[in-house]
Write a structure and sequence with these properties.
single chain; alpha+beta; 12 helices; 11 strands; 11% strand
Length: 360
């Protein structure tokens, strides 16, 4: 430890003074004490002339070595005794916790209604009924295509979540409504098989009449309003841990979509690529971005390079003293330099040995 080295060094100085026995020293002479102002920079700074003649002394009496980098930076084999971490390197010790907006939520239903707010449900009901009215003429009986309401949409979302928990996503819809006791009973109590299939066909999340104009500037316009509302609630609901991770996920999707991705290394291979920032301790996703390729000219067009994408995803935690962990696709020397110098945020990332650290 540093204080043990200092103690041994002081003891050695005292022994040398006793051996010399210099009695001619002035008793009234003031001792010279080196002090360090607390308001100065937290790291020791040395000039080039001081470093040129510097030789570090180790505990065993050997001298440390000095190195000079290509950029002119001086490195020593042993750290200085009175070094302290910079402010941007001090990670916050605040534990993950809820914010005042979610502190009063107690039950599962209250938590669910916070993230899937009434505003989101109303948008889905309004746009779904608009679609039902446009296809109602395709059914012989009116009772086959009657409009939905808030209660039915909430029940449908809950049923889909239950099927996901029970890992029924690959089951045929007929198997969910069997009467021989092998199905989930709540499915038959909630709705019929015909109505279930009909509702899965009809949901919409935007006004179809204005979609064509909105697609000219935003490829994600069919779900933009609902998606941004959900992400906004996620950012305000929880305070994340001192360490967050930036990674991508590929939820399975094989439907018709202009930005559907094919990634052979992923378990699902086909799906919608989503870049997300999550808490490293609680796995809580605080921010997400759907990858849609190059956006048309407009307010949603931005760079998809990692050096621009990572600061944009971590915007709400920049400068808070947290540490960002990334995989080899996001990591680059340019990104780490930008995060530290411009945003005062540290990073840890994986690198491939055949990847240039300066590339993006």
């Amino acid at each position: 430890m540093n204080y043990e080295k200092a103690e041994r060094r002081i003891q050695r100085y005292l022994e040398e003074v006793e051996e010399e026995g210099d009695d001619s020293a002035d008793e009234n002479e003031e001792d010279h004490v080196d002090t360090q102002d607390d308001v100065t920079d937290t790291e020791q700074e040395f000039s080039d002339s001081d470093l040129d003649g510097y030789e570090a002394s180790n505990d065993d009496g050997t001298q440390g070595q000095q190195y000079k980098g290509k950029d002119g930076t001086h490195w020593r084999s042993d750290p200085p005794l009175l070094s302290r971490a910079r402010k941007c390197d001090i990670i916050r010790t605040t534990l993950p916790s809820v914010t005042p907006e979610t502190r009063k939520l107690k039950t599962v239903e209250e938590c669910w209604r916070y993230f899937v707010s009434n505003e989101i449900i109303e948008i889905i009901v309004k746009c779904t009924n608009q679609n039902i009215r446009s296809i109602k003429s395709n059914y012989k009986r009116e009772r086959y295509a009657y409009e939905t309401n808030t209660c039915e949409i909430e029940g449908l979302i809950g049923l889909l979540l239950l099927c996901g928990i029970r890992k029924c996503c690959r089951m045929n819809a007929k198997d969910l409504f069997k009467t021989n006791g092998s199905s989930i009973e709540v499915c038959r109590l909630l709705t019929s098989e015909f109505r279930f299939r009909f509702l899965l066909r009809c949901p919409r999340f935007d006004d179809k009449k204005t979609r064509v104009d909105r697609l000219k500037s935003d490829k994600l316009s069919p779900i933009r309003q609902v998606f941004d509302n959900f992400v906004s609630k996620s950012q305000k609901g929880v305070t994340v841990s001192p360490t967050v991770t930036v990674d991508e996920m590929l939820p399975e999707f094989r439907g018709k979509c202009c930005f559907r991705q094919f990634i052979p290394s992923k378990p699902n291979k086909y799906g919608i690529k989503i870049e997300a920032v999550a808490c490293a301790e609680t796995f809580y996703v605080m921010n997400m971005k759907v990858y849609v390729g190059t956006q048309p000219e407009g307010p949603y067009r931005c760079s998809n390079k990692p050096v621009d994408l990572v600061p944009r995803l971590c915007k709400c935690i920049l400068g808070s003293g947290r540490n960002v962990v990334t995989d080899n696709w996001f990591t680059s020397f340019e990104l780490m330099t930008t995060m530290l110098s411009e945003h005062k945020t540290t990073m840890i990332g994986a690198l491939r040995k055949n990847k240039k650290t300066g590339s993006c």
